[in-house]
Write a structure and sequence with these properties.
Layout (H helix, E strand, L loop, with lengths): L5 E10 L2 E11 L4 E5 L6 H8 L9 E4 L2 E2 L5 H6 L2 E4 L11 H7 L9 H11 L1 H5 L10 H13 L5 E5 L7 H16 L3 E5 L3 H7 L2 E6 L2 E7 H6 L1 H7 L3
Parallel strand pairs: 3-8, 3-9, 6-7, 7-8
Antiparallel strand pairs: 1-2, 1-4, 4-5, 9-10
Helix pairs in contact: 3-6
Length: 237
């Protein structure tokens, strides 16, 4: 798509001889929540890691904000406006909440960091209450909020979330997805990888279904939730 914020065209990714991603193409427009759903091993995380430069595609192109980004290193992509919250959160466990957030601002001018901290604390009041607490002592839901807040400190144009509900109790899953919707309402563009298809499709503008490395179905979130095939395969219907 010519005016897409992110445009992925015909990528193919291999782990040795294993063809993990097969001719995948999709796009994310500014202001959207787009979700990739699929079973374990379908290629969702591999797709995100390819976009963020941790893996390389043998073919095709990845364009972000009008620029080809395949050759840009992951650390440099952050300064271009691309931030990923990885699967498993990967916060700095021995650092405080505030120190973790400050690490997320390494691409930003130091003078703006205090204001950015207050922005994150307004989105995640629980983090403000625990700003001096060692991150490794937080609950799973609080750690997920911290990982999201850390990514937001870089002022991303696109926020990529990898399995944000993993390992969380149902009530915390609802809170995390409410936060995702609030971020979007405040202007964030989000690419969401999620195994909880029901929750992901309920907040997404559009979705893509991955099976064994291929996109097999696409549609709006509402269309995919109503699809009998998607219900049977992913929604327990």
């Amino acid at each position: 798509m010519e005016n897409a914020l992110l445009n992925v065209e015909n990528i193919n990714v291999y782990y040795g001889a294993i063809h993990a991603i097969k001719d995948v193409s999709f796009h994310v427009n500014k202001g959207e929540i787009v979700t990739l759903i699929g079973a374990n091993g379908a290629g969702k995380t591999t797709t995100l890691q390819t976009i963020s430069g941790l893996l390389r595609s043998k073919t095709g192109s990845i364009t972000f904000d009008g620029k080809a980004i395949q050759a840009i290193s992951p650390d440099k992509l952050v300064s271009h406006g691309l931030a990923q919250v990885p699967e498993g959160r990967r916060i700095f466990l021995q650092m405080s909440v505030e120190e973790n957030l400050e690490m997320g601002a390494y691409t930003q001018p130091p003078a703006g960091v205090p204001q950015d901290l207050e922005m994150v604390f307004s989105l995640f009041p629980r983090l403000k209450e625990r700003r001096r607490q060692v991150a490794g002592t937080l609950s799973g839901g609080e750690q997920q909020m911290l990982a999201m807040g850390r990514a937001l400190m870089s002022h991303p144009k696109l926020l990529m979330l990898d399995e944000p509900s993993m390992g969380l109790a149902p009530i915390l899953v609802e809170q995390i997805f409410e936060i995702i919707q609030n971020l979007n309402h405040n202007g964030s563009t989000i690419l969401l990888v999620e195994q909880n298809a029901q929750m992901a499709l309920s907040v997404a503008h559009r979705g893509y279904v991955l099976e064994t490395g291929k996109i097999v179905t696409t549609g709006t979130g509402e269309e995919l939730i109503r699809s009998p095939e998607i219900k049977r395969a992913y929604l327990g219907g």
